[in-house]
Amino acid sequence: MGSYVPNTLEERQEMLKEIGYNSIDDLFAHIPEEVKIKGGLNIPEGKSELEVRREMENIASKNQVFKTIFRGAGAYRHFIPSIVNSVISKENLLTAYTPYQAEISQGILQSIFEYQTMICDLTGMDVSNACVYDGAEAAAEGVAMCQERKRKKAFISAAILPDAMSTIKTYCHGNGMEIVEIPEKDGVTDLDYLKEHIDDKTACVYIQHPNYYGNLEDAQAIGEVAHGAGAKYIMGVNPISLGIIKTPAEYGADVAVGDGQPLGLPLGFGGPYLGFMAATEGMMRKLPGRIVGQTEDHNGKIGYVLTLQAREQHIRREKASSNICSNQALCALAVGVYMSAMGSEGIKEAALQSTSKAHYLAAELDKIGFKVENKGEFFHEFVTVSEKCPCEALKALEEHGILGGYPLGNHRVLWCCTEMNTKEEMDEVVRILKEV
Amino acid sequence: MGSYVPNTLEERQEMLKEIGYNSIDDLFAHIPEEVKIKGGLNIPEGKSELEVRREMENIASKNQVFKTIFRGAGAYRHFIPSIVNSVISKENLLTAYTPYQAEISQGILQSIFEYQTMICDLTGMDVSNACVYDGAEAAAEGVAMCQERKRKKAFISAAILPDAMSTIKTYCHGNGMEIVEIPEKDGVTDLDYLKEHIDDKTACVYIQHPNYYGNLEDAQAIGEVAHGAGAKYIMGVNPISLGIIKTPAEYGADVAVGDGQPLGLPLGFGGPYLGFMAATEGMMRKLPGRIVGQTEDHNGKIGYVLTLQAREQHIRREKASSNICSNQALCALAVGVYMSAMGSEGIKEAALQSTSKAHYLAAELDKIGFKVENKGEFFHEFVTVSEKCPCEALKALEEHGILGGYPLGNHRVLWCCTEMNTKEEMDEVVRILKEV
Amino acid sequence: MLVFEKSRAGRGMSMLPACDVEIKKPSEKDARQKELHLPQMSENDLSRHYTELAKKSHGVNDGFYPLGSCTMKYNPKINEDMAALPGFTQIHPLQPEHSVQGCLEVLKKSEEYLCEITGMDGMTFQPAAGAHGEFTGLMLIKAYHESRGDEKRTKIIVPDSAHGTNPASAAMAGYKVVSIASAPDGGVDLEGLKAACGEDTAGLMLTNPNTVGLFDKNILKITEIVHECGGLCYYDGANLNAVMGTVRPGDMGFDVIHLNLHKTFSTPHGGGGPGSGPVGCKSMLLQFLPSYRVVEKEGALAMEKAEHSIGEMKEFYGNFLVVVKALTYLMTLGKEGIPEASQNAVLNANYMMNKLKDLYTMAYDEVCMHEFVMSLEDLKKKAGVSAMDIAKGLLDNGIHPPTMYFPLIVHEALMVEPTETESKEVLDHAIEVFRKLYNDALENPESLLQAPVTTPVTRMDEVEAARHPVLKYEFES
Amino acid sequence: MLVFEKSRAGRGMSMLPACDVEIKKPSEKDARQKELHLPQMSENDLSRHYTELAKKSHGVNDGFYPLGSCTMKYNPKINEDMAALPGFTQIHPLQPEHSVQGCLEVLKKSEEYLCEITGMDGMTFQPAAGAHGEFTGLMLIKAYHESRGDEKRTKIIVPDSAHGTNPASAAMAGYKVVSIASAPDGGVDLEGLKAACGEDTAGLMLTNPNTVGLFDKNILKITEIVHECGGLCYYDGANLNAVMGTVRPGDMGFDVIHLNLHKTFSTPHGGGGPGSGPVGCKSMLLQFLPSYRVVEKEGALAMEKAEHSIGEMKEFYGNFLVVVKALTYLMTLGKEGIPEASQNAVLNANYMMNKLKDLYTMAYDEVCMHEFVMSLEDLKKKAGVSAMDIAKGLLDNGIHPPTMYFPLIVHEALMVEPTETESKEVLDHAIEVFRKLYNDALENPESLLQAPVTTPVTRMDEVEAARHPVLKYEFES
């Protein structure tokens, strides 16, 4: 049996004696007998570290690690510099709690302040929070924060990540907002539908950019429609794309959200990732979650603290802007390290290479019968359609250690490229697919 | 091209200007033109981190990682607790130099002092140095430190690790000691030969215990013969075995050496490992290498320093006891963490399980025609002999992901078991061998 | 110094090779206009920057961290190693099922362990944190009532001693919060509860042991009262470390529970996350769970969606790598280790409480569970030294302060949770420090009002921070 | 507090499962009698112990480390990641060749890079450190002369400015050391060298740039003189960081060289090791190399022993995982990065030297290479403040001191090697500190005599340590 309890049986007995008890059972005596477990838990006996390691390694080996990945759809394999994991393994950072005690948490607080700055720089927005759970949840929180007393309707583009749509719906079922799905048309949000249906009860319009199919939306126009109706405009964005594509601020968004996973976090079977949220100055006090601010200590030394806590659950309870407490702080740290290691040029380059490679692969696939559906500009994802079900093709790739695109139904595949994919790999895909 | 130079071209130019130069070439102007490289180095261009990672991972993947290993012969796969690598990855420890500046090196110095204490405890000896390169080199240094003006002959058992024998010979070819090999007889050192040939020119007798074939030597008797001739007695020992087997001190050794690799260091294709060296009080000032001692600072606070430096090369130059400078400090740290994590009971258990499993496997192999040669007691290694060449058998094991014993010539195999080998694995070996 | 102040134009690290296909840029219409200001650093400077930040941080690994209700236990090293296995970190969440059998096994095994420990019938790992779990659990309750056409249940009962997340989560789920006052013994006031219950009651949210560290002796009565009026019982698992292996929420009458894997099951807090807040429930609620559950199908593991799922709470399947750490811990402790952990958590808390109660006023002077609450009201009156001041005094002694000013029902509260991974020596040392600080408060209160003095900064001006928010670095250009 | 003082009887961690075969104990005759006293610790206590020790240590990652002749450059993180790949760490050194093709490729590639950089024809990676490499190189020279029946060559010439390892290694190889005085300009005195050379000369050991940081302009002349008398030339690679990519020892007439991968090629020093000291040589010496060299055979890589090998220098093939780190670095820098590194090492040294030379006396006031030596003799006379005192003053300013009292030919020497991985800001800050300390020495010498005051301990009593050695903890039982 493994155990992390230092005190020996003798020491426990000694401690009990010192405080006037005979046995540990005495400390549990007040618990009603009828609820106590009889005969112990029905779980396996504890194991030594050697056994646990062996068993966990065995479990991990049942997963297939693909050397080459052309699948995105919400989770992206970008390059992660070695320094990222080196930093987040530092135990003073790893094993700390939320930095309530500012005097001994300046390192963590400063790292969040730096993260907030970088998110603002990347999105062009005025203020950022210290992160929420992930992109989908950030979208739901973003919609929730736009709710006003007389505006309880949210227009959500159908061309967003399905999990994000579902999450927004769950949250809105909770907070009572009405969801209107703006249909997709030719792979993008149907602007005409929005124009027609938006009204003065509308709290916000949410789109994803680039959208689920990789397409760039007419983001400027959508924002204008939203603002024309007095609604807020929320954009869900891919942070890597912001290296080369207009910022939400430039498109006129009031709130920008997204998933920070592409910025230095591993695929990890879906998590932990990170949701970033940024907004205009005017919406600052509606942001959910932690926010770190700069201030001074009693000696006038600059330092950092959790601030604007009047928004939060531990102060406002049921009137809080959100219930969020633990967020994804260590992931925010990783994102900060990633952005510093890549730098402005590195992020631009990652974006440029991702989109360039996607365009190369799209053109090559198009030539061999996987017709590219995307009509306008796309970033690093695109959809092909083929007459035959792509299942055979994807299986053939799998056998070569390649995770192909994500199947959308029986004829369509959503592909993704990043800077990790080489031309050689892409040519191999084409070669394999030709043979199928 | 990768680069770890922070200063930009502009900054370099600025610095040059400040100190009165036009170009970097000016700083190299005094180097004779005729020795300068023309046309640059003929090596590949520098690579980005992504490319280097990809290439190195690709190289690593060309090695076969065996899940199950029954090979020792100088390198042993024991369990390594997770905390070991966690500690040696701490950058304050990893990136420090030899602790000459005691005031900012108390952590490293204390860890070495603790290591020395543990080595003394394990071996039963009075003093330990801070480590040398590995077991073979420790043996060679051990022999060298026994040299006296009138004693320049060393008797070395033939039943030791071949690399150790060769290393001792190399060192002795340097320092002018004469080597006499004590032949092996029935798998152990030929005591009669030693008795017959030892004389008053003999500086020392060196044996390995358990020896290369896994056998326990008549270590007490050999020591008595050595001492009877006025020679020193050096034992090379497996540190794990000391959990249950008599210490060199108990056998009467003057010097104990060995390889610390089994104590928490990975196989790593042969290194870095660690050579430990311990001796009786009387031989303290003959020990080579670093030694850490306890003392006080100017305020009377207890602390640690490198001590007895009068033995060392940077003080004594050609009269030093050895030329050793860099040792294997981080490995000594790992060994210290390992011994603390395992504790007395853990080391005993590792020793007990290793020998128990070796005896189980030996018995099972013996039953199927791999006859066990070892006649007396053995620890965790043993030799089988079979009529057929074992190459087929070993190949069959390899195909099942099992690294079998180490072939000694065409009919004999040197097997090893540790606590890492399960009964299941051993039964599988027997099953596979039966089929060959 | 901020990383931006260390940045120098033109510096940087070489991460990516040159592009091996034709470059495609976005059209002018969609091209980014504003320049980026991300740091430009050499690896050495960047690495040292974070070394500096780490030195100005304090984790469990740095010393005793008795932060009440947060269960800051030791984070085993093997957990981290297992979660770093490429066989887990490099798996895309949308790989075909047959290629993720290991991940599915992690989720299945974790569910089996945790359902047995909590007495629940099934579990979702999608919630990313405790509060997220609460919200999820309440949405399950909501779905349950809705599925029965029981539309009038609009209220959630929450004791006034609850964590702030409880009412906040209820509000997010669209419920009206009914706060009920605690009984003088810190437990649920049965009469108050009965009065609050009715046909508009959707459910009760309860922490047991409660937030003052006491196990509610009336627990069966409490859940019965709620069930009788048609409500469901939600168990806030924040304090499970006190009772796991001894009692099971499911056996106490609870229908839904969330766990904090980053509290009870030893995964690190990471400076505020990522956590993991799996939600377990009784069988009648399984049909509403979000995300997928793992089931066995034709000899392999498969993912299955609940029939009437409330929908997703976030992307994919939760903070998976955190679950890997928790499973490692569960497998290590097992059948005997789980109760051993909670027993020693309780022993350590009672030991400290008893060794301090002659000086410090305990909010409730009886056997506590894994944590206890002291009220410094008297001391404040006597010496002008507040709970905050004592907390800051602890900082100067290398001890992380207890939770301050919570629960709200105790004035000048300090809530101490030592956890089971601390040794008697550590507790004895902390007891000594607490006692010394008490005496300092009486004899030299000024020293505490000025504390801390040994930390990288002294007390911060939080009022100014909130009044004139500076939330990011302003670049010059 | 020592780990032993934190140990408590009966505590411990659960590492191994129960034995699954019959227990076999050694017989009474060979059974251990003395009890073990290894620590008995919980993982939390052990982990915090090393956290504490780490806090009392100082690495390159903590700040500027201009330790002359040690090349404390930044240790890239990717190096560590690559050396931790299971495909390297879990490989048994005696696996069949076909199963270790990756390891052999590492050795082969490293040899190719390093032979081109040094101008040598082949290399062994067996030596574990610089001094070990020196000894290896000298044994090659010895084997060379012996193979020619040239038995009279019993002497090695070593300049008096050499590292202590040089004469010590020569002695280990059985050579008599002939020390020659340096010329006034710090270089080799040609006349002295000529006088020392003769038919008993086995070889010359030289560091170039030498240990005062200067490149010997007569280098071709020097090696020619040695060769003319029948000796071989050994190049101590300690200072290769100054010239790699600009000149090659092989082209300067050297026959053997050792490298310090832990200096020049960025692998960390680890608090004193493990290093790696590969030895390269010209073709006529290849036949004597220890261990194996990697060769291509039938499309695969194979290990080949030299025909007249001097024998092993240690087990197996050297500190392999250190070589992995160095190869990672070599691949990263490549053709342009290698000279860029040395150029900037030289620039940084000259920058610092020039910014200090108005205050501090430079031992040699000319262009230096990657390091420079100051003599504090004047200051000591003037103010009673020694090189040691200035060094200790640096500690209070977060800067690791330069190498002190070396080379021996300069009195009150401080030897400063900034390396190329430090930025201008770091250098400027250090310059400022050095200048401040100089002024402190004149104005308030006492403050330096008392330094350091901010470190975990103050100056240690080394005399007492050596006089009454306490080399281990004494257990009570």
Automatic annotation (TrEMBL), chains A, B:
Record gene name: gcvPA
The superkingdom listed in its UniProt entry is Bacteria
The task this protein performs is described as: The glycine cleavage system catalyzes the degradation of glycine. The P protein binds the alpha-amino group of glycine through its pyridoxal phosphate cofactor; CO(2) is released and the remaining methylamine moiety is then transferred to the lipoamide cofactor of the H protein.
Q: What is its EC number?
A: 1.4.4.2
Chain ranges of the Glycine cleavage system P-protein N-terminal domain: 3-433
Question: Where is the signal peptide, in residue numbers?
Answer: none
Reactions accelerated catalytically:
N(6)-[(R)-lipoyl]-L-lysyl-[glycine-cleavage complex H protein] + glycine + H(+) = N(6)-[(R)-S(8)-aminomethyldihydrolipoyl]-L-lysyl-[glycine-cleavage complex H protein] + CO2
Query: What is this protein identified as?
Result: Probable glycine dehydrogenase (decarboxylating) subunit 1
One GO biological-process annotation of the entry reads: nucleoside metabolic process
Q: Name one Pfam family in it.
A: GDC-P
Q: What quaternary structure, including any partners, is listed in this protein's UniProt entry?
A: The glycine cleavage system is composed of four proteins: P, T, L and H. In this organism, the P 'protein' is a heterodimer of two subunits.
List, alphabetically, the InterPro entries matched: GcvPA, GDC-P_N, GDC_P, PyrdxlP-dep_Trfase, PyrdxlP-dep_Trfase_major, PyrdxlP-dep_Trfase_small
Q: Which GO terms describe its molecular function?
A: glycine dehydrogenase (decarboxylating) activity
Query: Would you identify the family this protein belongs to, as annotated?
Result: Belongs to the GcvP family. N-terminal subunit subfamily.
First-tier enzyme category under EC:
oxidoreductase
**Any idea which UniProt keywords this protein has?**
Oxidoreductase
The major lineage groups are: Bacteria, Bacillati, Bacillota, Clostridia, Lachnospirales
UniProtKB/TrEMBL annotation, chains C, D:
List its EC numbers.
1.4.4.2
- Chain ranges of the Glycine dehydrogenase C-terminal domain: 341-440
Instruction: Mark the residues carrying the PTM N6-(pyridoxal phosphate)lysine.
Output: K263
Cofactor(s) named in the record:
pyridoxal 5'-phosphate
Q: Which UniProt keywords apply?
A: Oxidoreductase, Pyridoxal phosphate
**For this chain's UniProt record, which GO biological process terms are given?**
glycine decarboxylation via glycine cleavage system
Protein's UniProt keywords contain Oxidoreductase: yes
Supply the InterPro entries for this chain.
Answer: GcvPB (IPR023012), GDC-P_C (IPR049316), GDC_P (IPR020581), PyrdxlP-dep_Trfase (IPR015424), PyrdxlP-dep_Trfase_major (IPR015421), PyrdxlP-dep_Trfase_small (IPR015422)
Superkingdom in the source lineage? Bacteria
Q: Which GO terms describe its cellular component?
A: cytosol; glycine cleavage complex
GO MF term list:
glycine binding; glycine dehydrogenase (decarboxylating) activity; pyridoxal phosphate binding
Function field: The glycine cleavage system catalyzes the degradation of glycine. The P protein binds the alpha-amino group of glycine through its pyridoxal phosphate cofactor; CO(2) is released and the remaining methylamine moiety is then transferred to the lipoamide cofactor of the H protein.
Q: What is this protein called?
A: Probable glycine dehydrogenase (decarboxylating) subunit 2
Q: Which organism is it from?
A: Dorea formicigenerans
Which gene does this sequence derive from? gcvPB
